[in-house]
Design a protein that fits this description.
The chain is α/β, with parallel strands linked by helices. It is built from 13 helices and 20 strands.
Length: 422
């Protein structure tokens, strides 16, 4: 008998019919003798619907009071789906109880809309499990030290599930979703994408941070820190498939490199449209300039991703960087009002129609020429590269958003990632 955590995403919880299927699947695992903790997301579309209602009332605000209410609002989506799942389990003849984050409690910091989990008190959950109950814990939410409801950022139910699994030392955390594992790239963009049987923790971390939303990055960080056995699998298989077969399906996140992984130079391609570029043309090329520009941006709590500074011509240089698209307007306004005059009023250009495409693979550590193969492939498609950044196991480029699909498909082919290849 093992303690197992299941997480079900929004699509998997998308209707009462699907919730009934989740309940049947969970009941199957419980009847096989496992202690079950289940972390559901809100029903698909619900978080967007709720946040859309807030937007109708107040377009944009950077005010902390506003963010507090956004969290109080968004958290209701998971509360509803958790209670519905408990009701469905009870209808299956299982004893079940659902808890909101604050009832567990899952304690977080107070960064509304992007809170971090600090600790989880599992006493209540353990008592319920010992009493033979299936315990449902709302994904995506927690409570801060003042008792305010917080949420963990979009896609945060993955993180709730892995954090609960880590805190309770679960034997495994199974992330059930609408695809049957982690693919070489998003199968919705490249239908030829291939499912990976295993993916290393480091590669998964890069893929998640570079835009593959199949797992929220913080869930992967938690899994790495606490060595939580983590698997991504489909909730759309028949609920009554053989439990041993199910337990081996999908994609396992591994913590040790095996020989097979070493062979794949590039394991996957990630992409994101969430970025926007800011270029400042003709800034004086002298010490302190980067700090003047990026210091002001950091002060406003805006994260910067890629940065490029060109060589200077006549003592002037160009400076470009990317920020999250949601922060683009704010960053531009701030630079225009606070920084540009001090820099001698150079030209500032914003571009929100960009995207970032990345190739990821542990094998890049030991192989040269991988980045140049990427650039060759993009040039063959006539795609201009605007920015480049590299790390040991990834190369990312910023390109015009209109070439996103073309670039991802071409790279997927160029690195032999298609089905039946490797
Ligand atoms: P859930 O609601 O279950 O949390 P998400 O929509 O957050 O599901 O994540 C699953 C989606 O992630 C898939 O439907 C797929 O389109 C997308 N995705 C992006 N990159 C990948 C990838 N490399 N492998 C699998 N799915 C991916
Ligand atoms: N419901 C939240 C969202 O849509 C959390 C999640 O689904 O993981 O972002
Ligand atoms: Mg998700």
């Amino acid at each position: 008998m093992a303690l197992i955590v299941h997480k079900y995403g929004g699509t998997s919880m998308g209707s009462t019919e699907r919730i009934r299927n989740v309940a049947k699947r969970v009941a199957k695992w419980a009847r096989a003798g496992h202690q079950m903790v289940v972390v559901p997301s809100a029903m698909s579309g619900e978080t967007n619907r709720l946040l859309g209602l807030a937007k109708e009332l107040a377009l944009q605000s950077s005010n902390a009071e506003h963010f507090r209410e956004l969290d109080a609002l968004a958290a209701t989506g998971e509360q509803a789906s958790s209670a519905l799942l408990a009701i469905a389990l009870q209808a299956e003849g299982m004893s079940s109880v659902s808890y909101a984050g604050w009832q567990v409690p899952i304690r977080t910091d107070s960064a509304f809309t992007k809170a971090r989990i600090e600790s989880i008190d599992d006493a209540r959950v353990r008592a319920d499990l010992s009493a033979g109950k299936v315990v449902i814990i709302t994904g995506f939410q927690g409570v801060d030290s003042e008792g305010h409801i917080t949420t963990l950022g979009r896609g945060g139910s993955d993180t709730s599930a892995v954090a609960v699994a880590a805190a309770m030392k679960a034997a495994e955390c199974l992330i059930y979703t609408d695809v049957d594992g982690v693919y070489t790239t998003d199968p919705r963009v490249v239908p030829e994408a291939r499912r990976l049987h295993t993916v290393s923790f480091e590669e998964m971390l890069e893929m998640a941070s570079l835009g593959s939303k199949v797992l929220q990055i913080r869930s992967v960080e938690f899994a790495g820190k606490y060595k939580v056995p983590l698997r991504v699998l489909s909730s759309f298989t028949p609920w009554d498939i053989d439990i041993h077969e199910e337990a081996k399906s999908g994609t396992l996140i591994t913590f040790e490199e095996d020989e097979q992984m070493e062979q794949a130079i590039v394991s996957g391609i990630a992409f994101t449209r969430d970025e926007a570029k800011i270029s400042i043309i003709g800034v004086p090329d002298k010490p302190g300039i980067a700090f003047k520009i990026l210091g002001a941006v950091a002060q406003a709590n805006i994260e910067v991703d890629m940065i490029i500074q060109n060589i200077s011509k006549g003592g002037l240089t160009d400076f470009s960087f990317t920020v999250n698209r949601n922060d683009h307007v704010r960053a531009m306004d701030l630079l225009k009002s606070q920084v540009m005059a001090e820099l001698g009023a150079p030209e500032i250009i914003g571009d929100a129609k960009i995207c970032k495409v990345s190739i990821v693979g542990i094998g890049m550590r030991s192989h040269v020429g991988v980045a140049s193969r990427m650039f060759e492939c993009l040039s063959a498609e006539g795609i201009n590269i605007q920015m480049i950044s590299t790390s040991e196991i990834k190369t990312s480029v910023v390109i015009d958003e209109k070439y996103l699909e073309l670039a991802v498909r071409a790279l997927h082919k160029a690195f032999d990632l298609e089905k039946n290849q490797a």
